[in-house]
Amino acid sequence: MAPKALDYESMNENVKKVQYAVRGELYLRASELQKEGKKIIFTNVGNPHALGQRPLTFPRQVVALCQAPFLLDDPNVGIVFPADAIARAKHYLSLTSGGLGAYSDSRGIPGVRKEVAEFIERRDGYPSDPELIFLTDGASKGVMQTLNCVIRGEGDGVLVPVPQYPLYSATISLLGGSLVPYYLEETANWGLDLNDLQQSVAQARSKGITVRAMVIINPGNPTGQCLSEANLREILRFCYQENLVLLGDEVYQQNIYQDERPFVSSKKVLMDMGPPFSKEVQLVSFHTVSKGYWGECGQRGGYFEMTNIPPKTVDEIYKIASIALSPNVPAQIFMGLMVNPLKPGDISYEQFVRESKGILESLRRRARMMTDGFNSCRNVVCNFTEGAMYSFPQIRLPPKAIEAAKRAGKVPDVFYCLRLLEATGISTVPGSGFGQKEGVFHLRTTILPAEEDMPAIMESFKKFNDEFMEQYEDYRGYSRM
Ligand code: DCS
């Protein structure tokens, strides 16, 4: 009999080609070990609440009231909820058409999109149009929708940084496009070299690929670097010259752990550049409620803003968004709360600032602890996490470890990470899941474990690593760098 459409041999090959390491082999093994009763520290996903981060009080109060509007009629509501949370819940309910149980416009609630536009205007100092902002179920959905509009088939290429967050490689495979890699330079603090970029495009074109878009992740995942304004200008100039739409993944814009290079949005830099750039370069930028000090990953809230995208294309994107009817409505309220936070003088303001500052300051200390911890280990070097939520140390595996991995039928960094997991319970993602230069190995951890647990985790990592290196180092054949 002919195979059925959903038999494995006959299903869509693009689906089978997709690789997504953040929930790959290491994660599966960690879940198994956990079932067997081993204590696992899940540092494989940037999922702050799963590692004990507590939700901010005010936004949860507001959404709780929106979810249970009958509480607003309860005479005791003012005992449990502060007046500003009550007022804000009424505000958001008034923006919906039927509360949280009703679909919203497929682009998101107009009033919330207006709040997003006002946030962008305050951030960048340039006007933002709510009609060009779409709310999405997390930034992921926005990225997927945008790539879907860019990629027409195999011949269409998208420039993606390597290392990169595998949402990009996975979506490009799924849509049947071609990933065109450009390498970030580890020794230059994961900076981006324009010559290298140029070369990547030339190489792709010589293979008949039409390069149509470029992705930047700023601050970087997994690499943690913050792009300078000068670098962003170069990138935008490059996109102008090469006629590329820029996808600016800015989901970590609140996660900054140094003062030398604050976050600057691609939109601001583009507008600062003036015409012809500011009028011509097509830019789509992404944000989320999953990151920052919010960490509300499970709510699935995000937005994208389009710059220099013609109205007819915006209409098409609206049509495609409409197929899924409506983004999550509760998540839209979280987005509204994130972009329109409490102000000095509001009843809940001080508590909100205390909570959010507490999280950010602790993340800053944890970023430092992790980098320093990795750099104290044998054959490990690690750039400082300037931003985002990850540490991405390079593990200089001795040739004997690489041979042992081959014998075990594993990619060398997967071999190392599996051994680390078995020995310590620390669940990481091998660098090969994000892409890395040939013969160079990394792993990614999040900086999210509780601050008080961090010293013990780093100590346990160091003990494992140094013993591993001891086991495989051949002093005659391998010199330590
Ligand atoms: N863009 C980047 C660079 C990300 O790191 C993530 C999530 C997303 C987009 C999508 O986030 P939301 O869909 O939740 O808005 N990062 C994943 C990661 O590497 N660890 O945790 C999730």
TrEMBL record:
Reaction(s) the record says it catalyses: glycine + 2-oxoglutarate = glyoxylate + L-glutamate; glyoxylate + L-alanine = glycine + pyruvate
Chief site of localization: other
Localization (cell): Peroxisome
One annotated GO molecular function: pyridoxal phosphate binding
Cofactor(s) this protein requires: pyridoxal 5'-phosphate
SUPFAM superfamilies with a match to the protein in the record: PLP-dependent transferases
Domain Aminotransferase class I/classII large: 85-450
Assembly mode: Homodimer.
Protein name: Aminotransferase class I/classII large domain-containing protein
Organism: Citrus clementina (Clementine)
